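Next up, a specimen:

>
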Amino acid sequence: MISRNVPSSWQALQIEVGRILEECGFQVEVEKQTQAARGSVELDVYAEETVRGRKYAIVCECKFWKSRIPQAVIHGFRTVVQDIGANIGYIISMEGFQSGALSASDLTNLKLVTWQEFQDVFEESWFEEFFTMQIHNRLSGLMTYAEYIVPAWFGKMSDEDKSTYFLLKEKYDSFAWLMQSLGPYSRRFGVEPVPPLPLRERHRETPDSGGIPDHILDETGYRELLESSLVYGEAALAEFRILRDKYKD
């Protein structure tokens, strides 16, 4: 799943839906006012992207209700989606839908989903467009230290600092290789499903892969995994840079 956290209000649900779509590459507006055929309407979340010159628009209705969504909501939202010319509409419900609502969405461009199901729909796009790129942009420097070739400034170091360098490699190499396996280049040569979480089972199959913190190996949400990995990885990178800055020209 993208995130194990559950929104605590309708405002939070709107924000999180918009956040996921934006991180997938859409231009997003939350609580967008627009004109429809029957007058002005407010859309909880409106998102669009342009693919090869063609606009693709998504509208989301976020229902933080304590009961299942009835059929009447589906009919009203379907009219809005048609009036503004959106390609698809999502109704996201925290409690699911009545049977009549599900029937009313048949053969339409509406998708009725729970918060978890909404994440499932966009998980692969989010992983490719956001997660892997954050790993690359912010931790690629650490991955270079996991390579077998030492940096150019290694020869200038004192024996004591060389020992420190190798201790840091021993401490962080497994984590760096794990992050590299989750980055964009590892997925470039084939289409693979998003790796399941937690990563501990995958970690057990990796030779010499000790030292990775438990809270990273046992995380069940990819957003939380990303946040923890960036904090840990950037702290590790800072340790290497202390050495680098002593000897780099």
Observations:
- The chain has eight helices and five strands.
- The chain has two domains: 10-120, 123-247.
